[in-house]
Amino acid sequence: MGSQWARDKVYTRAMKAGYRSRAAYKLLEVQERNEIIRPDDNVVDLGAAPGSWLQVLRELTDGKIVGVDVNPIAPIEGVTTIVGDFTESEVQERICADLEVVNVVVSDASPKLSGQKSYDQARAVALGEEALAFACNVLKPGGNLVIKSFQGELFADLMNEIKEHFRSVRGYRTKASRKGSAETYIIAKNFIG
Question: 125-134 in b/e burial notation, b at 16+ Cβ within 10 A?
Fold first, then answer.
């Protein structure tokens, strides 16, 4: 039996366009509305599997792209992939060895969902905090960050933490997100450094 979401319009459109998942349209919309990626930016994608954001990033920039995930990612021409946990120092060292300068960090990473909203939201916020810590270690001043999170009681705390490091921070919900989802992207621009 397939997923209840397997035949929605965004999924079907993504498959026809050759993207690996519907998430490609989320990043395309974030980019269209917020202009986070410039044509020569080097980008790190955290939680990159199965690779649809990497496909979009390859279309948006001629810079270097590194995708990191605990799961293997099928190769994409012109993209470096690393299997590992981005919170581990040896994985961060490998990323920095591939990229002298990091202009943008994106993360569509999500914890495995349990169905218990407050627990899942807390885990998503913790993952967002780890992505923020990573970005603060590697981003050049003026760089941008996109993190997926979930609306809930801890969401404002994460937003406030990000505001300490970036000049512009806002929440953004994409049209490609499933109806009823608490998924929200945090768009942070102009890293203070």
Answer: bebbbbbbeb
